[in-house]
């Protein structure tokens, strides 16, 4: 566990929102010198607090406007079966998130596609044909309210 002070936490929040913000602007917002900000960013990356600098893409503009969350229940709950499914499901471009979970279901998948036809093709290829899958349930996203990767458009209330 790495020690993070208030400056580190505020810096992390700023780069989570925009990792291309120039160091001089980050320094102004934090009340630190540019060199202090750069040192902190380097340390946070070296210590794997910041694990990646990524671009968040608008799915509506890339042909993947439909988001589904799929609850998957496996026939067997053994480690070998779960690991095999986890390894296989990552090979499908439609899967943009996958979590092994507790409870009645074994996995939650986040699927992004451009149409229901694409989703149907995905489920046939990735889930129906997987002998280890017992059942799955699809939840279709109506709108995104909050998403940790900040790709959601802000929900305006009022």
TrEMBL record:
SUPFAM superfamilies: Dimeric alpha+beta barrel, Winged helix' DNA-binding domain. Residues 4-65 form the HTH asnC-type domain. Transmembrane segments: none annotated. One of its GO terms (molecular function) is sequence-specific DNA binding. It comes from the Bacteria. Gene3D superfamilies: 3.30.70.920, Winged helix-like DNA-binding domain superfamily/Winged helix DNA-binding domain. Keywords: DNA-binding, Transcription, Transcription regulation. GO terms for cellular component: cytosol. GO terms for biological process: response to amino acid. PANTHER family: LEUCINE-RESPONSIVE REGULATORY PROTEIN, TRANSCRIPTIONAL REGULATOR AZLB. This is DNA-binding Lrp family transcriptional regulator. It comes from Sphingobium jiangsuense.
């Amino acid at each position: 566990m790495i020690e993070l002070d208030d400056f580190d936490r505020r810096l992390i929040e700023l780069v989570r929102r925009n990792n291309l913000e120039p160091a001089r602007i980050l320094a102004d917002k934090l009340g630190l010198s540019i060199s202090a900000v750069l040192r902190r960013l380097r340390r946070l990356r070296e210590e794997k607090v910041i694990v990646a600098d990524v671009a968040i893409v608008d799915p509506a503009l890339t042909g993947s406007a439909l988001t589904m969350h799929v609850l998957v229940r496996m026939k067997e709950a053994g480690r070998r079966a779960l690991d095999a499914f986890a390894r296989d499901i990552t090979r499908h471009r439609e899967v943009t998130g996958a979590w092994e979970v507790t409870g009645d279901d074994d996995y939650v998948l986040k699927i992004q596609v451009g149409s229901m036809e694409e989703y149907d093709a995905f489920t046939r290829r990735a889930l129906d044909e997987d002998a280890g899958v017992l059942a799955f349930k699809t939840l279709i996203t109506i709108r995104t309210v909050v998403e940790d990767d900040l790709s959601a458009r802000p929900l305006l209330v009022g």
